[in-house]
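1st attempt posting a full record on here, be nice pls
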Amino acid sequence: MAQAALQFSFKQTRIDAEKNVIYGVKVIELGEVKSDHGPSEVKHKHIASFMAHAGNRAIPVHWTHDYLDEDKDRLHAKVGALKNFRVDGDGDLAADFHVAPTEYRDAIFWGAETDPDNMMFSVVFSYDPKDPEGLPLDFQAADLVERGAATTALFSETNTMTPDEIKSLVADSVKAAIAEYQTQNKETQDASAAALSAATGEIAALKAELANVSANAEAKAKEIAAAELTAAEARFTAALGKGASFKPEGNKEIAAMSRADFAKLSPAEQRDYILTKRGKVQD
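the predicted structure (as tokens):
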């Protein structure tokens, strides 16, 4: 999918309808020639010869070869010209097609954009039949046909764009990719920040609730502990009252204490009075 999309995009960048130019078209390819005229095979020497004959000239382009059967000027069939000849990555001859504002203009751009595999170039040249190589003696034209003798499609699958066009295409692609990444990254960061903020608020609320529970539990524990201590002291006092009816022999100085006075003492004083001083509690 990505490769097909890139290839389609790559070809589309070669079509500039506003400037009436189709960049990087295939003019003639290396390999077998499907014709009884001229060489049976296009070789590198043929490509070099066509390049030499083209030089810096503009080579005319006609709408099919029909004009070749007519004994009149070819200008009526002309639909554009080829310029800026070069050898592409396949070793084939490529050029830029400058489209003329004729009745065929829309059909040419439609074919380039929609059906480039069924519109291509076919070169017109003369040669010496006695030459076994069939090298071209001139380069008269390159006409648009449905099936070329030495071409298979309008565009080559390898790059025939100029270095500046390649740089521009790559730069635009990189800028678009960076912009898309930044947009997606910002959306992700915003979502993460919102989630973090929500989580932080929830954690703060939980901490406050936990602190409140802890404080309540601590207060409750102190309240329970105080109540249990009071109850234990009461039980201890009652137990002392029941069991403290004696007074050890030889301790005549400790006077007996009424229960009311005993109750006024602190627990420590009560224990000291009973256990150490051997005091007596009486009703």
